[in-house]
């Protein structure tokens, strides 16, 4: 499949190791003790049916740009400060870090902004990725802020009604307006 070939080509270009795992649901990057970067990708990308291959290609290219050009060049992997703060604090910090590194990624590769926007729009429109069902206010706050900042800072076209719903759930639970930018 062309995705494996593309993975090998991009890994060689950016001095990365790309691994596929059935145990993960999304994409991640880590630094090995020898300093090499490893991107781990969900095996399901390789198992996409023909009619979903184009969308999987968009996600794959965007995820590589996010992980390699974003986190790979701009994330401090030695930072352990949030390790003891709990999962919500780590998730919130990761959401802000994702927006930060995606804003910086185009400096490494001019096509990154387009790849990242296409990935975000596909995740939002086709996979309902940043959408929380129910009234988990922490999840809604996290997703709402991520969606809002992706729209306002990165200028990605995400469904505004979904963003408003996530933030409304969080605001109702907190009893205060969630501070936003812009």
Structure description:
With 182 residues, the protein is mostly helical. It has helices spanning 2-13, 53-74, 87-104, 112-127, 137-152, 160-174, and strands spanning 16-21, 28-31, 37-42. It has a three-stranded mixed beta sheet with strand order 1-3-2, covered by helices on one side. It is globular, with a radius of gyration of 17 Å.
Order of SSEs:
HEEEHHHHH
Q: What is the average of the pLDDT values?
A: 83
Note the main sheet: 3 strands, mixed
Strand-pairing-aware structural class = mainly alpha
Portion in beta strands: 5-15%
Low-confidence stretches: none
Distance between the termini: 43 Å
Order of strands across the main sheet = 1-3-2
State the helix count: 6
Spatial extent as radius of gyration: 17 Å
Secondary structure: helix percent? 40-55%
How would the global form be characterised? globular
Number of strands: 3
The assembly state of the depicted protein chains is: single chain
